[in-house]
Design brief:
Helix content: 55-70%
Shape: flat
Number of domains: 1
Strand content: 5-15%
Structural class: mainly alpha
Number of helices: 4
Distance between the termini: 49 Å
Length: 106
Amino acid sequence: MTVTKVFAIFAAVFAVVYTIAFEWHWELFSYHPRLGTFGWGQQASINGPVMSWYGALATAVLVAAAISLATLPFLRKRSVPLWIGWAVPLACLAIWPWFLRAFFIR
């Protein structure tokens, strides 16, 4: 079934792109909760904190969906190991403590 093949590709690409987008601040947009406004790309703080998580999530979803749809014609004749959909996100998850070390070590 091609849906499971595409989902494995989507999960792997999503994990990698989300990790990169979060660390390098490649968010699609930023949200200012105190003002209730959105801004394109990375925004500076205006009268309160800026939430970039939504933008990084949107970036990862769009890129992963585009790559998954682009690989769909190739996956009809070939098989994809389904473990890729689990192994790559778990490997990316192992990197996150390094990114968040500033919150734990002061």
